[in-house]
UniProtKB/TrEMBL annotation:
InterPro entries: Chaperone_TCP-1, Cpn60/GroEL/TCP-1, GroEL-like_apical_dom_sf, GROEL-like_equatorial_sf, TCP-1-like_intermed_sf. It comes from Polarella glacialis (Dinoflagellate). The keyword Nucleotide-binding applies. Gene3D superfamilies: GroEL (3.50.7.10), GroEL-like equatorial domain (1.10.560.10), TCP-1-like chaperonin intermediate domain (3.30.260.10). The lineage of its organism: Eukaryota, Sar, Alveolata, Dinophyceae, Suessiales. GO terms for molecular function: ATP binding; ATP-dependent protein folding chaperone. Pfam families: Cpn60_TCP1. Transmembrane segments: none annotated. This is Uncharacterized protein.
Length: 257
């Protein structure tokens, strides 16, 4: 799967940094979103935001919105209450159903809960601050996206919501949608992508690369063995043993692979 995941890791890092001037990478700007229901080959880089929470259907919300306005709020949504006490008489179930529908339409058409840990990332990628109360929920707190769409994966797997074409003020972040056919493979794929991101980050920090898999240790071992043959005496024996010790590293890696 390296042919699929490695380019995604490189492209993700390049989206959140300036390759000419960057000396580090904040991996918090790259959000890994894991979702079952597809093969690892379908893992993709999304130039925008991806959510896997179930969409609110109580208000009959749409599954696709173009030129969308998005609000990020951190307060409880509920239907407004009257200032005075009042009683409503409901004579049959149709009136009750109508009352509930009208109450739900007062809420947003597309509302979903997100984890508290995700608020900072979502706020950054959308380019807006989260509103902490209704009084602070003003027009300037609304993000804009060219398209918000939901991809349904069935009753059991839920859905994926993509926010693409975000406003120019929302930059420096991206999402990687990680896919797999089972939970074990999904966790392993997510870990592999994170490891790949760490490797690319190391290259950004220092523009140098050496081979892995104990190749450097074997190169040093060969050089030491060649040097020992030119030294002679007890010193040569010590150098040879040190060279042989380095050869244990690839054996250990192979056993643990």
């Amino acid at each position: 799967e390296s042919d699929t995941l490695a380019p995604i890791a490189v492209d993700a890092v390049l989206k959140v940094i300036d390759a000419k001037t960057a000396t580090n990478v904040d991996l918090n700007d790259i959000r890994l979103v894991a979702k079952l229901g597809a093969t690892t080959d379908e893992t993709e880089l999304i130039d925008g935001l991806a959510l896997t929470q179930r969409i609110a259907r109580n208000a009959g919300g749409p599954t696709r919105i173009e030129k969308a306005k998005i609000g990020l709020i951190q307060f409880c949504l509920s239907a407004p209450k009257t200032d005075m006490e009042s009683n409503i008489q409901v004579r049959d179930y149709t009136q009750m159903d109508r009352l509930l529908r009208e109450e739900r339409t007062l809420l947003a058409k597309m509302v979903r809960d997100i984890e508290r840990d995700d608020v900072e990332f979502i706020s950054k990628i959308l380019g807006v601050e989260a509103a902490s109360s209704l009084d602070t929920f003003t027009e300037d707190k609304l993000a804009k996206a060219d398209l918000v769409c939901e991809q349904s994966l069935g009753t059991e797997l839920g859905s994926i919501i993509r926010f693409t074409g975000l406003s120019p003020t929302a930059s420096g972040c991206c999402s990687v949608l990680v896919r797999a056919t089972n939970a074990l493979l999904l966790d392993e794929t997510e870990r592999s992508i994170h490891d790949a991101l760490c490797v690319v980050r190391s290259l950004v920090k220092k523009k140098a690369l050496i081979a892995g898999g104990s190749a450097p240790e074997m190169e040093v071992s060969q050089k030491l063995a060649a040097w020992a043959r030119t030294v002679g005496g007890i010193t040569a024996v010590c150098i040879e043993h040190y060279a042989e010790a380095l050869e244990l590293i690839p054996y250990t890696l192979a056993e643990n692979a």
